[in-house]
From TrEMBL:
Annotated source species: Viridibacillus arvi
GO terms (BP aspect): small molecule metabolic process
Cofactors that this protein relies on: Mg(2+)
Protein name: L-2-haloalkanoic acid dehalogenase
Presence of the UniProt keyword Hydrolase in the record: yes
Molecular-function GO terms, alphabetical: metal ion binding; phosphatase activity
Pfam families xref list: HAD_2
Keywords from the UniProt entry: Hydrolase, Magnesium, Metal-binding
Lineage: Bacteria, Bacillati, Bacillota, Bacilli, Bacillales
PANTHER family, per the entry: GLYCERALDEHYDE 3-PHOSPHATE PHOSPHATASE, N-ACYLNEURAMINATE-9-PHOSPHATASE
């Protein structure tokens, strides 16, 4: 293996924890808007509407304003989210150490993430890892998104790397693991504890487990 490519959300970025940290802060800053609603109740509802990031926040905040008849605008809440979320990003344990060590060992590093380009790149910057990657591909930026095989082929072309020399690590069985395999890469599932039924040939629970797995792959 010569190249290691990663997903971002729930693979390197602990998005669930980051969102809770952001919402806790946003609740206090917009207390005049929704202070009459118990904090835990409001945050739980936003998390439900967010659907782990698969519903963009304009729709989330629209629903929230309608349900609770809030005296604010979608634009105000959305701008706050897009501008301030980056300050609350939380990476999974040892995320930076793992990336630094992979670079030290000579691997090329790539990232493919679905999402809004400005928002995702701000989050990557917030984690302090943008300079560790040889290529970062954000779906909005290139007009295609996972699981479309073209976005994987695009990233590989940027790295000048054939798929059989690359692995992709992600938490989503369809968008990450299976999609990577479909283009000839090795797909590694970073296990999502909320997904019980999926089985994968290559699994890690923690990012640092990638080193032992790479050694096994090299032997094979």
């Amino acid at each position: 293996m010569k190249a290691i490519l990663f997903d971002l959300d729930e693979t390197i970025l602990n998005r669930d924890a980051s969102l809770l940290a952001f919402l806790d802060d946003q609740y206090e800053r917009f207390h005049s808007v929704w202070g009459h609603i118990e904090k835990g109740q409001l945050i739980q509802r936003i998390v439900e509407l967010d659907a782990r990031g698969y519903v963009w926040k304009d729709e989330v905040y629209t629903r929230l304003i309608e349900e609770y008849k809030l005296d604010t605008s979608v634009k105000e809440l959305l701008n706050d989210y897009t501008e301030r979320f980056r300050y609350f990003v939380i990476g999974f344990p040892k995320y930076k150490e793992v990336l630094v060590e992979l670079k030290r060992q000579g691997y090329l590093l790539g990232m493919i993430t679905n999402g809004k380009v400005g928002f995702q790149r701000a989050n990557i910057s917030g984690l302090g890892i943008e300079n560790l990657f040889d290529v970062i591909v954000v779906s909005e930026e290139v007009g295609m998104k996972k699981p479309d095989k073209n976005i994987f082929e695009y990233a590989l072309a940027k790295l000048q790397m054939p798929p059989n020399d690359a692995v992709f690590i992600g938490d989503n069985p369809t968008n990450d693991v299976e999609a990577a395999r479909d283009v000839g890469m090795i797909g590694i599932w970073k296990r999502d504890q909320l997904i019980e039924s999926y089985k994968s040939e290559h699994i890690i629970d923690k990012l640092e487990e990638v080193f032992d797995l790479l050694k096994q792959l090299e032997k094979n």
